[in-house]
Specification:
Elements lengths: L14 E5 L4 H12 L3 E6 L2 H13 L3 E6 L5 H11 L4 E4 L14 H29 L3 E6 L12 H21 L4 E8 L5 H7 L2 H10 L9 H11 L10 E4 L7
Parallel strand pairs: 1-2, 1-4, 2-3, 4-5, 5-6, 6-7
Length: 254
């Protein structure tokens, strides 16, 4: 009898692009991929933070290439992906939140959130997939979504709308590109201790609400996301596409 063997979680020889890499979940994703052997291109607007991260990663012996880029500039992003790709792996962690009661939503806040969380995410995913398709290569594209793509939340009508949209286009792209062996999935975290999450965690009543909803009783850390990134990027998830991996401490189990 020949026993089965666990598919490899290693990413040696793979090229990854991580958007939103300058802090938080994006930074953690970049480290996770590099630690697993990938060559990682770090994308964000803040060139100084990217240079810092790349230098720190290189001291660990990992491959890290900083690329300052605003992904809401669709033309520049398309050109950069074409010039530096093809990329075997995408982690799109670029995003923002401008929380307010729905009655107080401004057009400026709505546009800022949808331009980055939906429009830029859509076209970045499309651009990386196009490079893979033209090269005849398989790939794994990962959009960092949210538990709020599956539920509603206080003062989060716009944010929830953007993340529900990400889930929708991810599933449709997975169907379309499956025959090309290009997989597309989302990771849906709960509240994670990052600069983006700090604005909510600093409000005592919101912090209590969060901890009551998370069945494991704690706020997430970026390390809670890193294994999921490597899993979805690697051959260990070779039959996973069009899926949402919830890392929410049980929030959505209700």
């Amino acid at each position: 009898m020949t026993l089965p063997r666990t598919p490899s979680f290693r990413l040696d020889g793979k090229r990854a692009l991580v958007a939103g890499a300058s802090s938080g979940i994006g930074e953690a994703a970049a480290v996770a991929l590099a630690e697993a052997g990938a060559e990682v291109t770090l994308v964000a607007r803040r060139a100084d933070e990217l240079a810092r991260l790349a230098a720190e990663m290189r001291t660990e012996g990992w491959s890290a290439i900083p690329l300052a880029l605003d992904v809401t500039d669709l033309a520049a992003t398309e050109a950069a992906v074409a010039a530096h790709g093809p990329f075997d792996i995408l982690v799109n962690s670029a995003g923002l939140a401008r929380h307010a009661p729905a009655l107080d939503t401004t057009e400026a806040d709505y546009d800022a959130a949808t331009d980055l969380n939906v429009k830029a995410a859509y076209f970045l995913t499309r651009n990386v997939a196009r490079g893979l398709a033209e090269a005849g290569k398989p790939g794994s594209l990962i959009n960092i979504s949210s538990q709020m793509a599956h539920v509603g939340g206080i003062d989060r009508a716009v944010y929830c709308a953007t993340k529900h949209a990400v889930e929708g286009f991810t599933k449709s792209m997975a169907i379309e590109w499956g025959p090309k062996q290009i997989r597309v999935n989302t990771i849906c975290p709960t509240f994670i201790r990052t600069p983006l999450g700090a604005q909510t965690l600093a409000i005592p009543e919101r912090r209590r609400w969060i901890e009551e909803k998370i069945k494991l009783g704690r706020v997430g850390e970026v390390e809670d996301i890193m294994g999921a990134v490597v899993y979805l990027a690697s051959d260990a998830s070779a039959l996973v596409t069009g899926s949402s991996l919830l890392i929410d401490g049980g929030w959505t189990a209700d």
